[in-house]
TrEMBL record, chain A:
GO cellular component: plasma membrane
Protein name: ABC transporter permease
Stored Pfam families: ABC2_membrane_2
Coiled coil: none
Annotated transmembrane regions: 20-41, 53-74, 101-125, 137-158, 165-185, 233-257
TrEMBL record, chain B:
Name this protein carries in UniProt: Tetratricopeptide repeat protein
Source species of the chain: Fimbriimonas ginsengisoli
Highest taxon listed in the record's lineage: Bacteria
Length: 262, 453
């Protein structure tokens, strides 16, 4: 455990020093700060548009950070040969991998926390301080954090056997697919004219594929008049789902990484 | 040496657990609360990258950006560009109530011709958008109310529809108290004064209860307004013979509606130029406030009904009205017992294409639309009015309305062939040309403080 923590801490430090990530973060924060400039017809429209924009900016920026942060993590260690200095110590490969992943997630968390703080300040300045609404609004970035942790695990998994560039597109593609497929599946499921075979295939794919759309819960946070049934239960289930799926991807990555020769 | 974890066992456990959670606990909840609703996946008109971006969790963001864009189009008066954006935004984020309500208003009211007449062919689309909005946002009163308002204010007919929507709005707990009055008004327009009275009493009771909780000026004012409304309605119901009609004593009593006034309706319609209609006529009511509906439409207009169309015909929002169809609706205002209006449809060929062979010109007056000072004589169902020639008790069951219609041909409307040099004139047999002004009592003189010293 100590090895995992040490690797994680180092990874966090490295991630925070990476300029490309800081630039992405800065752009995200800048966009969050100027979002209130989007004035529209009514006060409620302004609320809806502002919240939609700030949550969208956080989600988009976080997705970029999660992918860029993770795709280079293992390849850089191998390319710079620093991995040898680590693995020659009493550190197992799985510990190295999990340490790297946790460090990345921690770095992602720090950056998302910063963006969430800017978002809350922006919204509070424009719409007044309402503690309940602020806490409620923060559930959006919290769910995005789990979503991005899952995305980072996807990128980590691919980084054990593909190059960073390929990984970038693979992870982004997986994110897109994982966000789209649930909608596609719902449409297919509800269509009485669809043959049972494609329905069954879609069911299997939907069960296996990482379902990123589970975390797109922002609609009721954006539209103040909307309520959903028992959000706490839903958030608990999708958090559990995220943790299990991250487990699947990390174990998969460990199995591949274990067999890899440097 | 420490034992290595059995990774395959862990993989199986994680895989099964995530699958079980997804299938058993998440999928249905997600589909119910968070899934993009039907219309989005049917095709939105978004470009492929916009569509992917929208579905990849950024629906609300894309909707927000588009709505901001729509605002700039509103500001620049580019209304045509706003329409598809409204459709897109409601598809991307069907929970944006303002977009639905603004969209309904925009589609229903803002497409006008050169003389500020609405293009009525759009109205079923506006109502379809309202219906979709109600379906997508069933828990809030707003879109029920807004859809009801389009029926009440824009269509001014088929009052069972606004009553239905206002009733639905009132069932929602967030319905604003001040807006509940409109249901009482809609009941009256539907001819159900007793229901209107019940509604006012109900609101008064609610207001009195609220007064105990919050004795503020606003609550007191609301309560007093309701009391005044109840008082006024009771007087009207009594003087218009409403109670007497219900208990079978109308025939023997003296009421303001007796004897019925003969409206002496007559009309002459001339096609003075191609696509230009001139309507003149008589209406034997001196006080101002009468507006007679005039409709000129394709004889076989889809869903065409007497002096209106089937406004509720559409369930799907289509942004393209039937471009080859003509449906013009306007009002004729009566002054000094006569009306005269020139309706120029020549500058708006796209709104009035006159592509069909036959047209129907309809003139319609319902007492339900009369302002209170006229309705005090006519009553809600027209008991206090009659007309020797054009009283009609069939076209609107339960109402005594004035209705006249003429058929026209495309050649007449466009002044083609034999009508190129001959002005088509259609008139009721009782129409009399007159250039003379009535007696002094017919002229409405407005006192001027300036000249009067």
């Amino acid at each position: 455990m100590r090895a995992i923590i040490a690797i994680g801490r180092t990874t966090l430090g490295e991630a925070i020093r990476r300029k490309v990530l800081l630039v992405i973060l800065l752009v995200g924060v800048l966009f969050l700060s100027v979002a209130p400039g989007l004035g529209v017809l009514s006060a409620r429209s302004e609320t809806v548009v502002l919240r939609g924009m700030v949550l969208g900016i956080i989600q988009l920026t976080s997705a970029l950070i999660a992918i860029v942060l993770t795709v280079y993590m293992l390849p850089n260690e191998i390319e710079r040969r620093t991995i040898y200095t680590i693995l020659c110590k009493p550190v197992q490969r799985w510990q190295f991998l999990i340490g790297k992943y946790l460090g990345a997630v921690l770095a992602l968390g720090v950056m998302m926390l910063l963006m969430t703080t800017v978002m809350e300040i922006t919204v509070a300045i424009n719409q007044g301080i309402d503690a309940n609404r602020m806490v409620e609004l923060a559930t959006g970035p919290l769910m995005f954090f789990i979503q991005m942790s899952l995305l980072a695990a996807v990128a980590m998994f691919f980084s054990t056997f593909v190059t960073p560039l390929v990984n970038f597109f693979l992870s982004a593609g997986m994110y897109l697919l994982g966000s789209l497929f649930a909608t596609f599946f719902e449409t297919l499921k509800d269509n009485p004219n669809t043959h049972p075979l494609p329905k069954a295939v879609a069911l299997v794919v939907n069960t296996i594929l990482p379902n990123f759309s589970n975390y797109n819960v922002q609609n009721h946070l954006i539209n103040p008049d909307q309520t959903i049934q028992n959000p706490t239960a839903y958030y608990t289930f999708v958090t559990g789902y995220g943790l299990f799926y991250i487990g699947v991807l990390l174990v998969g990555a460990i199995l591949i990484f274990d067999r890899r020769e440097f | 040496m420490r034992k290595r974890p059995n990774w395959y066992a862990w993989l199986a456990i994680f895989l099964i657990s995530q699958g079980a959670l997804q299938r058993g606990f998440i999928q249905d909840r997600w589909a119910r609360d968070f899934a993009p609703k039907g219309s989005l996946v049917k095709g939105t008109g978004l470009s492929p990258e916009q569509f992917l971006f929208a579905l990849a969790g950024f629906r609300e963001m894309v909707a927000g950006i588009l709505w901001v864009r729509a605002d700039s189009f509103f500001d620049s008066g580019n209304f045509d560009a706003v329409l598809p954006i409204i459709r897109l935004v409601t598809m991307l984020d069907p929970k944006q109530i303002d977009v639905y309500s603004t969209g309904m208003w925009h589609i229903g009211y803002n497409f006008t011709d050169e003389e500020s007449r609405s293009d009525r062919r759009y109205v079923p689309s506006a109502l379809a958008l309202g219906k979709e909005g109600c379906k997508q946002n069933p828990d809030t009163y707003e879109l029920w109310f807004e859809t009801g308002w389009i029926w009440f204010h824009k269509i001014e007919d088929d009052y069972d529809k606004p009553v239905y929507y206002f009733e639905e709005a009132e069932k929602r707990p967030d319905m604003q108290p001040a807006r509940k009055n409109l249901l009482a008004m809609a009941y009256q327009r539907e001819g159900r004064a007793d229901e209107s009275l019940k509604q006012y009493f109900k609101l008064y009771d609610e207001s009195a209860a609220e007064m105990k909780r919050d004795p503020s000026l606003a609550t007191r004012q609301n309560m007093e307004t309701l009391l005044q409304n109840i008082d006024t309605l009771l007087v009207r119901m009594s003087q218009r013979g409403y109670f007497a009609e219900n208990n079978g004593t109308y025939a023997s009593g003296e009421y303001d509606t007796k004897p019925p006034v003969d409206l002496g309706f007559s009309v002459k319609a001339s096609i003075v130029e191609a696509r230009v209609l001139r309507l003149e006529g008589t209406w034997n009511v001196l006080p101002v406030g009468t507006h007679i509906r005039v409709v000129l439409r394709d004889k076989d207009y889809p869903g065409g009904k007497v002096a209106e169309m089937d406004w509720d015909a559409q369930d799907e929002v289509t942004l393209d009205p039937p471009h080859d169809r003509t449906f013009m609706q306007d009002q004729l205002f009566v002054k000094n017992r006569r009306f005269s209006k020139r309706i120029d449809m020549s500058k708006d060929v796209t709104i009035y294409p006159f592509a069909s062979k036959s047209y129907i010109l309809e003139l319609f007056y319902s007492p339900r639309l009369a302002p209170p000072h006229l309705q005090d004589k006519f009553s809600w169902n027209g008991e206090g009015m009659t007309d020797a020639n054009y009283l009609n008790t069939v076209v609107r069951p339960g109402q005594r309305v004035i209705y006249a219609s003429f058929e026209l041909t495309r050649d007449q409307m466009l002044r083609f062939n034999q009508w190129a040099d001959t002005m088509p004139i259609l008139k009721t047999p009782n129409f009399r040309e007159t250039t003379e002004r009535g007696g002094r009592e017919d002229v409405i003189e407005m006192p001027s403080l300036r000249t009067g010293g």
